[in-house]
Amino acid sequence: MPSPKVKNPGRSGGSPVLGSSNGRYEFLSLTKPLNRSSSPHLQRQGSDPTTARLRVSESPTRRRGSSSSTGSASGPPEEDTLRLNPSFIRVALSSLLAIDLWTSKRLGVCACEDSSWGSMRPLMKLVEISGHGIPWLAGTAYCLYKSDSAAGQEVMLNLLMGLVLDLVLVAIVKAVVRRRRPAHNRMDMFATFSVDCYSFPSGHATRAAMCGRFLLTHLVLAAPLRVLVLLWSCLVGLSRVLLGRHNVTDVMFGFWMGYCQYNLVEMLWLSPQTLQTLLGQLA
Ligand SMILES: CC(C)=CCC/C(C)=C/COP(=O)(O)OP(=O)(O)O
């Protein structure tokens, strides 16, 4: 890990040297390999070291061309300041990822039978099945087939469309991000396909959020049932982490994505007339 080096006040850049009275510092880049010919040096600016701005001095070739930029109060050129941000963002993201992995590992208490909450695993696997795509697709198609009212058919048809949309969008994001499932997960899931080996986002979480919103909006439910729907959605998401299927961030993003997916279902809402027109055109 490169360490900060004290820089001689009179120097306008160049390789860092030891010893200084007013505390100007030169930092080697935290994210780039040490390459003296091209790597920019970070040079601490400002009269008061505690409030100094980080300034990127330039490589030797650029310093000759613009000596005023090495010590000017106007601050570093735009592209130099942008180079500082990625290292800070990278450190922040790495820290968040480490917290995510650590928390998820600690919460994976039902990951296998001999985990601390191993006895709860069968119940969590039932919750997992209740949030799986196949039971929801089959159940919705059955209700659509058995429905004898236009309103019921309209609601079930749009729920079916939403479930298909959810699978496609989650499959795309999983295939793009390709984040592996947690190491402590046992791949004994109910009916998995292709991109399902990936962890981000949690399809159960997207489905729980989208279907939860859908049921609360389009079904007339008594207050206790509405609370039950909300609890089910939260429990499905929680079960993903308890079973070790996902990290916390997979589920949190899944809830957000499922919440937004419902807005898309509302935007693409298929009325019976639209469907009859579409079927008429196909016939
Ligand atoms: C080609 C297609 C459409 C494949 C379907 C696989 C898929 C996207 C499953 C959704 O995840 P999930 O429902 O298994 O949930 P989780 O990610 O929480 O395991």
From TrEMBL:
Its membrane topology, per UniProt?
A: Multi-pass membrane protein
Subcellular location field: Endoplasmic reticulum membrane; Nucleus inner membrane
Q: Which Pfam families match?
A: PAP2
* EC numbers, comma separated: 3.6.1.68
Q: Tell me if Nucleus is a UniProt keyword of this record.
A: yes
Q: Where is the Phosphatidic acid phosphatase type 2/haloperoxidase domain?
A: 154-266
Q: Which SMART domains match?
A: acidPPc
Q: Which domain of life is it from?
A: Eukaryota
**Which keywords belong to this entry?**
Endoplasmic reticulum, Hydrolase, Lipid metabolism, Membrane, Nucleus, Transmembrane, Transmembrane helix
Q: Name one GO cellular component term.
A: nuclear inner membrane
Where in the sequence does UniProt note compositional bias of the Low complexity kind?
66-76
Q: Per its UniProt entry, what is the enzyme's top EC class, as one word?
A: hydrolase
Instruction: Give the principal location in a single coarse category.
Output: endoplasmic reticulum
Q: Answer whether the UniProt record assigns the keyword Endoplasmic reticulum to this protein.
A: yes
Q: Which example biological process does GO assign this protein?
A: lipid metabolic process
| An MF annotation (GO) of this entry | sphingosine-1-phosphate phosphatase activity
Which chemical reaction does it catalyze? (2E,6E,10E)-geranylgeranyl diphosphate + H2O = (2E,6E,10E)-geranylgeranyl phosphate + phosphate + H(+); (2E,6E,10E)-geranylgeranyl phosphate + H2O = (2E,6E,10E)-geranylgeraniol + phosphate; (2E,6E)-farnesyl phosphate + H2O = (2E,6E)-farnesol + phosphate; (2E)-geranyl phosphate + H2O = (2E)-geraniol + phosphate
* Biased composition annotated in UniProt, kind: Polar residues: 32-50
**Chain residue ranges for the region called Disordered:** 1-81
Q: Which InterPro entries match?
A: PAP2/HPO, PAP2/HPO_sf
Q: Where are the transmembrane segments?
A: 155-177, 214-239
Gene3D superfamilies xref list: Phosphatidic acid phosphatase type 2/haloperoxidase
As for family, the record states: Belongs to the PA-phosphatase related phosphoesterase family.
Query: Per its record, how is this protein called by name?
Result: Polyisoprenoid diphosphate/phosphate phosphohydrolase PLPP6
